[in-house]
Amino acid sequence: MCRHVALVLLLATALLGVDGPATGGARPVRAVGPIGLTVADAERSAAFYARVLGFERILDVEVAGEAYERLQGVFGLRLRVVRMRLGDERLDLMEYLTPRGRPIPPDSRSHDRWFQHVAIVVSDMDRAYDRLRELRVEHASPAPQRLPDWNPSAGGIRAFYFKDPDGHPLEILSFPPGKGDPRWRRDDGRLFLGIDHTAIVVADTGRSLACYRDALGLVVAGESENWGPEQERLNNVFGARLRITTLRAPHGPGIELLEYVTPRDGRPLPADARANDLAHWQTVLASDDVGGLARALRHSACRPASPDVVATPGRALGFVRALLARDPDGHAFQLVEP
Question: Tens digit of pLDDT for each residue in 282-295?
Answer without folding.
Answer: 999 999 999 999 99
